[in-house]
Amino acid sequence: MVNSLQDTTVLNNGVHMPWMGLGVFKVEDGQVLVDAVKTAIKNGYRSIDTASFYNNEEGVGRAVKECGVPRDQLFITSKVWNSDQGYESTIKAFESTLEKLDMDYLDLYLIHWPVKGKYVDTWRALEKIYKEGKVRAIGVSNFNVHHLEDILAVCEVKPAVNQVEYHPHLTQEEVRAYCEREKIQLEAWSPLKKGQLLNDPTIVEIANKYNKNSAQVILRWDLQNHVVTIPKSITESRIVDNANIFDFTLAEEDMQRISGLNINERTGADPDNFHF
């Protein structure tokens, strides 16, 4: 049972990762971003998820410096972008990320997408960075089962996390079962399907039953499915609301009703068919 924003899951290498964090995708670098990250931390969040592709690592770094919480009490994730994949270029990209964040180390570094012909070499670079102690855990993002199998066939360090698009319209049952079996922590990006699920009649009905809002019900569903979640918001009231999910538990029948909304529909690209 996850009881607070500071509660953690233990990754397969023993590192503790908060069950819930703040995502900053598409938040433009600048004061709005800095304020959002500081607001989240002030309200108890300890995990922040960024990526080189978001072009806002500097702002995240600044917010972390200014937030008043020691760096070692925070969990910072970033990702290597597709155009930087490959062994040498990934190592360079990681150094650039550390520089932009103005940090000595990262808590989690992910391969952003499984770029064909490159992700295995990219993984070797992540292993090197990990062994050098510059990152506490390494993982992947948007990997399907066969991509994970490619990595597991050759890796010396197993991925600790797989961050995928995950919400009631895309329950990723195959990936979820595989990750659970292999002790790879699943993490949800776009958990609210960019807001598209907030007016779903089933979710609204369940939310009314628990005296919660739709976002809170979906995020609680994530946690009860043992999926780490990182909803994005820049609004203080919503940042606080999203985290107000530790005082109720969804009944099994409601969990199943929410899972039953699955239609395998993505808002982002298909990891087997992307061109960027």
TrEMBL record:
Domain (NADP-dependent oxidoreductase) ranges: 32-262
Keywords: NADP, Oxidoreductase
Oxidoreductase is among the record's keywords: yes
InterPro entries: AKR, AKR5G, Aldo/ket_reductase_CS, NAD(P)_OxRdtase_dom_sf, NADP_OxRdtase_dom
MF (Gene Ontology): oxidoreductase activity, acting on the CH-OH group of donors, NAD or NADP as acceptor
Site (Lowers pKa of active site Tyr): K79
Pfam families registered for this protein in UniProt: Aldo_ket_red
Residues the record marks as active site: Y54
Superkingdom of the source species: Bacteria
Residues that, per the record, bind substrate: H112
Coiled-coil region list: none
Family: Belongs to the aldo/keto reductase family.
Descriptive protein name: Glyoxal reductase
Organism: Robertmurraya siralis
